[in-house]
């Protein structure tokens, strides 16, 4: 974990890409799109720990329809800025069977995390799978999955804030920043 001076230096060496107001407006738009598609489906919403915690906490009160809530925990980056092997820490539970499942995550980067969750959830008998990511990173390679609901597109830079960490910290920022 960075020390206090290193944590401050990360902020000084970064740019704001989306202000807290822009983030909030994107969450409103996403909530409207999800409500239109899934408002009558009584979905099971799964939040992907730990990055989706801020986004999920802000999105759920904007969804004014019945839903169930649970979480999964998958990790691929740890404290690094490049993805590695995917590790399941908490797998989906049996109750995904026959449900319309909506998985929420903070970011779709290379897409391996969301694709693995989709494969597991469908293998366990879900009726339908939808994914919602707050940030979709614009990368050059093809991704194994495209998200059904996206808040914002971010450039191909390491981004943080609104749940996304840099070296394990700064998930608490209300805005989205990128390392210079
Ligand atoms: O599309 P991908 O390239 O697979 O990357 C996206 C995933 O990476 C991050 O998780 P991370 O592994 O860092 O775990 P964390 O949420 O605990 O930080 C993020 O929260 C997504 O779950
Ligand atoms: O750009 C990123 N920022 C934070 N977490 C991430 N996980 C995958 N890509 C990123």
UniProtKB/TrEMBL annotation:
Keyword annotations: Glycosyltransferase, Transferase
Catalytic activity reported: GMP + diphosphate = guanine + 5-phospho-alpha-D-ribose 1-diphosphate; IMP + diphosphate = hypoxanthine + 5-phospho-alpha-D-ribose 1-diphosphate
Record carries keyword Kinase: no
Gene Ontology molecular function: guanine phosphoribosyltransferase activity; hypoxanthine phosphoribosyltransferase activity; magnesium ion binding
Enzyme Commission number(s) from the entry: 2.4.2.8
Keyword Transferase tagged: yes
Signal peptide annotation: none
EC supergroup of this enzyme: transferase
An individual GO BP term: IMP salvage
Domain (Phosphoribosyltransferase) ranges: 21-165
InterPro entries named in the record: HGPRT, PRTase-like, PRTase_dom
Domain of life per record: Bacteria
Pfam families: Pribosyltran (PF00156)
Entry's Gene Ontology cellular component terms: cytosol
Protein name as it appears in the record: Hypoxanthine-guanine phosphoribosyltransferase
């Amino acid at each position: 974990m960075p020390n206090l001076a290193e944590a401050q230096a990360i902020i000084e060496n970064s740019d704001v890409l989306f202000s807290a107001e822009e983030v909030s407006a994107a969450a409103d738009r996403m909530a409207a799109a999800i409500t239109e598609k899934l408002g009558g489906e009584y979905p099971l919403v799964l939040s992907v720990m730990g990055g989706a915690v801020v986004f999920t906490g802000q999105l759920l009160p904007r969804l004014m329809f019945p839903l169930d809530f649970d979480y999964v925990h998958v990790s691929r980056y740890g404290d690094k800025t490049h993805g590695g092997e995917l590790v399941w820490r908490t797998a989906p539970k049996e109750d995904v069977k026959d449900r319309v499942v909506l998985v929420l995550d903070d970011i779709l980067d290379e897409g391996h995390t969301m694709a693995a969750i989709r494969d597991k959830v469908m293998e366990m008998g879900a009726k339908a799978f939808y994914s919602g990511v707050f940030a979709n990173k614009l990368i050059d390679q093809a991704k194994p999955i495209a998200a059904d609901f996206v808040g914002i597109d971010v450039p191909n830079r390491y981004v943080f804030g609104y749940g996304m960490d840099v070296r394990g910290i700064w998930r608490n920022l209300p805005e989205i920043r990128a390392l210079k």
